[in-house]
Amino acid sequence: MKTHTVVDSPVGPLTLVAEDGALAGLYQSQQRHLPAAASFGARDDTALPQVKEQLTAYFDGALEQFDVPLALTGTPFQGQVWAALRAVPYGSTCTYGDLATTIGRPTALRAVGAANGRNPVCIVVPCHRVVGANGSLTGYAGGVERKRYLLDLEAGTGQQLSVT
User: Fold this and answer.
1) Do both 81 and 150 map to the same domain?
2) Burial 52-64 (b: 16+ CB within 10 A, else e)
3) Which of 42, 76, 83, 90 has the fewest CB atoms below 10 angstroms from its CB?
4) CATH code: domain of residue 16
5) pLDDT confidence of residue 164
6) pLDDT tens digits, 32-53
């Protein structure tokens, strides 16, 4: 059974979706590939206290690695990409090519990009750490401004962001 809660953050409101006590979704407002709100289940503001605590610590610069239970739904290929994303260190970036090579599919750049874009728990599974081959800030489901904010936060050069 799914439930959800909404928390404030420096990148705007975040909808956290719980399934059997694990994080199944973390969505930003106006995010691409946003599921229908009806799929989030009933609102329960007591849900996912550990996720809320870790997000607060992350945005305060005191947490570099999330260790909350996840309930991710996707294809086996997406699962490989999402696992590889979790291995990208805090404050670092990688390219789509790096991820493709890591999962043993060096020519699957577009598929890796598509799986990255369908990550259901952004921030916790750090898809924002993936950049273009030339270092450019290519797409991010939450918007490039949020991606820049998250990368700057992790680099210790964080700036204010006004996103609703």
Assistant:
1) yes
2) bebbeebbeeeee
3) 76
4) 3.30.160.70
5) 46
6) 888 988 999 999 999 999 999 9
